[in-house]
Amino acid sequence: MTRVFGDPxxxxxGGDGRPVRFVWRGRRHTVRRVLEHWVTTRDWWHEQDPAVExxxxxxxxxxxxTPDREIGVYELRHDTAAGTWRLSRVWD
Length: 92
Prior knowledge:
This protein is mostly beta strands. It has one domain. The protein is built from 1 helix and 7 strands; from the N terminus they run ββββαβββ. It has one helix at residues 44-48; strands spanning 2-8, 10-13, 19-24, 27-40, 58-66, 72-79, 84-91. It has a 7-stranded antiparallel sheet with strand order 1-7-6-5-4-3-2, with no helix packed on it. The longest helix is centred in the middle third of the chain and has 5 residues, at 44-48. The mean pLDDT is 88.
């Protein structure tokens, strides 16, 4: 089951530019592995939500991560123009 969020997260990147850790709702999650990575360059999200500024790229990282012993799958979204990170989805 997928849950959709949009919560801001603090992300720590490794030397290769991949997320290695993120903090969500005060809990630190360690990335175990990257499952997928993609970049969207079209402004399709602007067409869907006019409140979102046009331009820029959105970079997505689907990662396997754990705050404790339980591993989950998380989708992180980086808005390159604004420099912000959000947690988009969580898989149970």
